[in-house]
Amino acid sequence: MLQGKNAVVTGARTGIGRATVEKFAEFGANIWACARQPDAAFESDMKNISHRYGIWIETVFFDFADKSQIEAGAKEILSAKRPVDILVNNAAINQTELFMKASIDNIEHLFAVDFFGPLLFTQKLAKRMMRGKASSIVNISSLRGLQPAPGRLAYSSAKSALKTATETLALELASSGVRVNAVAPGQIGSERMMEELKERKTSINNALGRFGTSAEVAEVILFLASDMSSYMTGETIPVTGGRGTDFTSS
Amino acid sequence: MLQTYRDLFCEIFEIEEDELDSATPDTLDTWDSLHHMNLIAALEDEFDIEFEPEDVMEIVSFQSGMEVLKKYGVNF
């Protein structure tokens, strides 16, 4: 499905990003796996996936909070002079603060990582993607971006902004053969989320009555990244187990 | 370099080589704002440069594009 395609996945170390790397590799894509900092375990994990599926994976390290690092990361990818067919903007941070006690600095930091960082990275890589015949950008928004909750002003706003950016970019890049879509995961059982939800005694109240898995989100990302979704752009697909989720503490 | 530049122009605006010398937004139906940005992105990617915003607006013909590129060290 992705045979011979080259994909960039940010936030590739864990959760949805890690699951996406494995899913893309399984379907034949080569991957630039981006993470914030190098470490041996991550390198080894990526090498294992690469060997298992017979594709190449190159690790790229930069911090989405730092514009110069983002530019350097993009430059490293572009310097390979290979086509970039797929970009998955997954890297993000999360925070919970009631508005009246929220630090504007924290909100700015979250926006830098969850919104402005992906925009800058996309701006750099889209140059290469626009030269391909059929490229795809998949932004990872959130159910929180569609359905805000108390204490999630920054995260909900940033993810909502990313959804709107997805729609705008879809209009601007369509003539260049670049489709831009998003997924909006709900309660997903990535390690970070599981810990967070456990601490906050969060109930599971979606229709399916369980957490989703990162692999289940990766399946939808695969669909949007591939030509199977060739008539879709500017769309956001909720992956929520049937919405209705409530992230407030019980 | 010149042939690369010519090829990019033809590819972006879907024209033949013999139309290049007269190519401007007025002579080409395909030279709208979106295709203009496609050209800018392709030139930046191909020649590994970053245009200043004022230079983006300076590219209003095949010839003026060459002049702007020379400022960034692209030799034809």
Question: How is this structure best summarized?
Answer:
The complex is a heterodimer of chains A (250) and B (76). Chain A is of the alpha/beta class and 250 residues long.
List the helices and strands and how they pair.
The complex is a heterodimer of chains A (250) and B (76).
Chain A: E1 6-10, H1 15-26, E2 30-35, H2 40-53, E3 57-61, H3 67-78, E4 86-89, H4 104-129, E5 135-140, H5 143-146, H6 153-173, E6 178-185, H7 191-199, H8 214-225, E7 236-239
Chain B: H1 2-13, H2 33-47, H3 53-58, H4 62-71
Report on this structure.
The complex is a heterodimer of chains A (250) and B (76). By secondary structure, chain A is an alpha/beta fold. In chain A, 44% of the residues lie in helices and 15% in strands. Chain A has one domain: NAD(P)-binding Rossmann-like Domain (Rossmann fold), CATH 3.40.50.720. Chain A has a 7-stranded parallel sheet, with helices on both faces. With 76 residues, chain B is mostly helical. Chain B has a single domain, classed as ACP-like (Non-ribosomal Peptide Synthetase Peptidyl Carrier Protein, Chain A, Orthogonal Bundle), CATH 1.10.1200. The longest helix of chain B has 15 residues. The model of chain B has no long low-confidence stretch (mean pLDDT 93). Chains A and B meet through helix 4 of A and helix 2 of B. Chain B: This is Carrier domain-containing protein.
- Number of distinct helices of chain A: 8
Number of strands of chain A: 7
Give the CATH topology of chain B: Non-ribosomal Peptide Synthetase Peptidyl Carrier Protein, Chain A
* Gap between N and C termini of chain A: 43 Å
Structural class designation of chain B: mainly alpha
Number of contiguous helices of chain B: 4
- Give me the count of strands of chain B: 0
Helix content of chain B: 55-70%
Q: Which shape of chain B, going by the Cα principal axes?
A: globular
What is the CATH architecture annotation of chain B?
Answer: Orthogonal Bundle
Mean pLDDT of chain B: 93
Low-confidence sequence ranges of chain A: none
User: Widest sheet of chain A: strand order?
Assistant: 3-2-1-4-5-6-7
The poorly predicted ranges of chain B are none
